[in-house]
Design brief:
The complex is a heterodimer of chains A (about 130) and B (about 425). Chain A is mostly beta strands and about 130 residues long. Chain A has a domain at about 1-90: OB fold (Dihydrolipoamide Acetyltransferase, E2P), CATH 2.40.50. Helix content of chain A is about 10%, strand content about 50%. Chain A has helices spanning about 55-60, 115-125, and strands at about 1-10, 10-15, 20-25, 30, 40-45, 50-55, 70-75, 80-85, 90-95, 105, 110-115. Chain A has a six-stranded mixed beta sheet with strand order 3-7-8-6-5-4. Chain A is globular. Chain A starts with a strand and ends in an 8-residue tail after the last helix. In chain B, about 15% of the residues are buried. Chain B has about 425 residues and is mainly α. Among the domains of chain B are: about 1-75; about 155-375, Orthogonal Bundle (Helix Hairpins), CATH 1.10.287. Chain B starts with 5 loop residues before the first helix and ends in a 21-residue tail after the last helix. Classes of the chains: A mainly beta (about 130), B mainly alpha (about 425).
Amino acid sequence: MKLFVFKSKDEFIGIESDYVHRIIDDSKVTQVPLTPEPYTGLLYHRGELFDVINMQLLLGYQADGSAEPNRIIILKWLDKKLAVIPDEITGMIWIDDEAESKNEYYHENHKIRLIRPDYIWKKLSELSYGPHKI
Amino acid sequence: MGKTSIRIKLITYFLILLLVIIVVIETVKRITGDFYLAQGLSVALAMGIGTIFGIIFSRSLTLRLNKLSNAAREISDGNLTRDIEVISEDEIRDLEEIFSLMVKHLRTLLLDMKSVSIKIHETNSNLTKLAKKLLESSNDIDVTAKSIAKSSEDQTEIVRNTTIKLESGIKAMDELVNQSSHTISKVDEAIKKTQKGETNARETLSHLETVLKEMGEYSQPIIKLPDKVEKIKVVTNVMEAIAQKTDLLSLNASIEATRAGESGKGFAIVAEEIRNMAENSKQSSQAITRLVEDILTDNKFLKEFLVKNQRDLDKGREIIRGIVQTFGDMLYGVKEIFSEIKSMEESTIRQAKELRSFSDKFKELASFASQNYKSTQKTTIVTRNQKVEVKKIVSAIRLLDRLSEKMIETQQLFTLPELPKESKENPLEENQI
């Protein structure tokens, strides 16, 4: 199985490469009011709208400006789609298939946290909406 | 009237008598005619007349001789007032005249003696006064001489001390002259060194101007370097952008290759390699960017350094110009000092010369003072001797005075006619020493 790995803050996050649709850059993200803080806005790419999530904030870290806004990972699975902003894209690694069921995977002495796109939706839905950003 | 001697007188008397006898004889003879009577009468007459004549003649002689004798006696008693009456024209008259002349001479002599005594006394008196004055003067001279001697001694001491001080002053002056000469040589050396310093400063300024010019030329590439580096930066930015695009492309290629399954594995490897290459390229361009940034920073620092250097060099140039100016001023000042010291040296030499001449004069003065001292010592001795001599003179005057007193006493033994009015009554009572 191939794992797409990116970094948020000091944490390596791994998503199965099948969910990764494309990586784009220099895209304009339109902010949406009254949305949770990790929700960065909406992205229009090639006729489609994507919800853009800042992974650093979603994972509960304070924003430090290290996230790469010019690199956005577009995820698509089933009929769902999502865009996330990583701090840094590490690349693709091959992992054992058995590791798919696990939450963590160690690669070259680095711990990689395995997540699914649904987790992102779930985590986002747990967050409250409010006037914390306009 | 001619003189008639006693002999002629006697002869005349005899002849007259003879004539009378003859006349009587002739008369008697005529009257009486008696010759013998006439002769007897004439003899008796002649004898009577002769006796009468004899008595008269002898009496007149005796009387005159007695007069002379009385006069001589009175003279021997000291009475010179009496005048000898000269009546006859005979030999007694000569005696009387001689006697009268003698009395006259004696009177004159006594008068002269008296006058001389008075004059001696007066002279003695004056001499005594003079001796007194001389004694007083001698005392004064002695005191003055002592004072002069003391002053001369003090003067000699002062002059000696002054001479020593002058010698010391001359020595100091000589040292000053030597010092001035040394200073002049030093100042001369300073002038040469200042001139050399000025020349060096001018040369340094010239070198600095050249360095500044060359620095300006050399710094042009450094100044232009940021433009070129900016171009490199642009190129590296482009390269980095290309690397990012390539990275993105390789990532998407990897995603696509994964989606292709087993058949896409090879492509995935290629994409991964391309990504690695893009990453390397990115890192290289980042390294270049960093280098460029470093170069720019260094260049900025270098430019700042150059500007600072330029400023410092400008300051240095200004300082060196100031130094050149200062050297010029120093040279002017040192030359003025040289001139001043030279004139000071001349003045000092002149002063030393004058001081030496002054010292010589002082030595002469010391010699004079010493001589003066000796002279005053001699004067003191002489005045002492003079005092002794004056005392001797006084003794002599007293002796003379006593002699004159004796003379007057002797003269007073004689009675003289009244003295002339100018002579003093009793001059000896005055001016007793």
